[in-house]
Amino acid sequence: MSIRRKELGEFLSALRQKCEPAAFGFPVGQRRRTQGLRREEVAQLADISPTWYTWIEQGREISVSGKALHRLAVALRLDKTQRAYLFELAGQRDLQPVAPEQEIAPPFLQQIVDDFAMPAYVMGRYWDVLAWNTAAADLFGDWLATDTTPNMLRFVFADPYARTLVEDWETRAQRIVAEFRADSRDQVDDPALIQLVDSLHQSSPEFAAFWKRYDVLERHGGLRGFNHPRHGHMNLSQVTFQLVDQADLKLVLLTRTTASA
Predict the structure, then answer these.
(1) Are 221 and 251 in contact, with CB atoms under 8 Å apart?
(2) pTM above the 0.90 mark?
(3) Fewer CB within 10 Å, N side or C side of the chain?
(4) pLDDT of residue 33
């Protein structure tokens, strides 16, 4: 028995025992000796074989499809986190994930960027800029205020100002595409992602060429050079933070570099 299959079985068993039978339409009688739902009841709710479900809880090495996992997730009324954990343990990709809520930067994130003296901003799932401070607006120019939905990729590839602002634009732009591809790897069939990529293909030959390379790189911090029209050359260190409870959001801070002795 593999560790993952053992964990999957114990996870489902624990969830089942937390379910109140009455809430799922089953009578609670004197003869019920099982805490929560019975295995047969879960199988009935998920429209799967009781024997097959029992084998899952027992950790047996049997085939568990994504469709069956979806039915179990719906039957047990799993939330987004529980559902993701179920599919992860089973080694399956969730083709019907819980629809993401509209991306809005929480007020406390806006407060953080407002309190930060240097450029700071918050990016969403597909790098829409959801919040920023005055220093970021000063650095990046008018696009933050004038674009209805400012997006970092559209800025880099479609705004002429970005090509003069970002030092060594081509190298940085190529890396940004590789980081974005890696960052969006779990949503390759999302219509919103497909629409964004298609629009970038149409507006930027460079993006189209970089995207076809299939480079994937994890996003990391480091030195970023800018050629600002008023402040001149600026070297800033980029640091990116992700929220535990909203992993799609990224808090990006640009700080002054410390001169070495």
Answers:
(1) no
(2) no
(3) C
(4) 75
